[in-house]
Amino acid sequence: MSSVDHINIFALKGAREVLDISGGSARIKQTIDALEQAVEQSPPLALDLAKSLIETVCKTILTDKCITIDSKWTLQQLFSTTIKQIRLVPVGHTQFRESTDSLQKMMGGLLTTIQGLSELRNNEGLAGHGQDAFETMLESMQAEFVAKVADSICCIIYKAHKQYPEVKHGNRFQYSDFPEFNNHIDDLHGELTIFDIPYLTSEVLFKVDINAYREQLTLYSSTDKEDESSDE
User: Fold this and answer.
1) Where along the chain do its domains lie?
2) Rg of the Cα trace of the chain?
């Protein structure tokens, strides 16, 4: 196959799972798209983006859990704080303590991986320490290794966060939290079609005008309460 016919087939499968579970974050999608391309086209940039992907997922988890994030934290500190907030084993599991201890040891071992990634990015990434203009750069093989590591880390911590939430999300306002209201909007207004592509009206309203969505949700909720009171 010639270089002209070459197609970049590298894909971040774990990170795209995170994208689906999170409800389609534009920031995460942009980072994933850029990282997949950078692995072959710009290995130094891939190192920066791999670090950024982990930071974004960690900060999303901590924000969900109402944990204050220190802007001065290193990636290691951010990751360490994040994994302390994650449940790894379902409640009621027969070997809960033993299995939790084992999995926490594995998570703790990832701190060494995170440290290595940070050091590599600082030395070889575009946003790290400057290098001699003619120094040989890392290649796509090393970039793919780093990207796959970041991909796996982001997937497992975010899936654990979603599957075993320790606390209810704080001030995070998510579309998936209000299925009845979303169905109500869609029943009233139907689908929105653009270039023959159907979109849920409720989801469009949520993403385009969150304030209007909140106002209508409040009205909808208060109406339900009034109806319940009248039935008593």
Assistant:
1) 13-163, 175-231
2) 22
pLDDT of residue 130: 54
| pTM for the full predicted model | 0.67
pLDDT of residue 1: 40
* Cα–Cα dist 218/212, whole Å: 10
- Could you give the CA distance from residue 110 to residue 158 in angstroms, rounded to a whole number? 15
pLDDT score of 173: 66
| More confident call, 121 vs 23 | 121
> How big is the CA angle at 16 (ends 113 and 128), to the nearest 5 degrees?
40
Residue tagged 């929105």 (tokens): 192
What is the per-residue burial (b if ≥16 Cβ within 10 Å, else e) of 136-175? eebebebbebbbbbbbbbbbbbbebbeeeeeeeeeeeeeb
What is the spatial distance between Cα 190 and Cα 194, in angstroms, rounded to a whole number? 13
H or E stretch including 218?
helix 210-231
- Percentage of the chain lying above the pLDDT 90 cut: 46
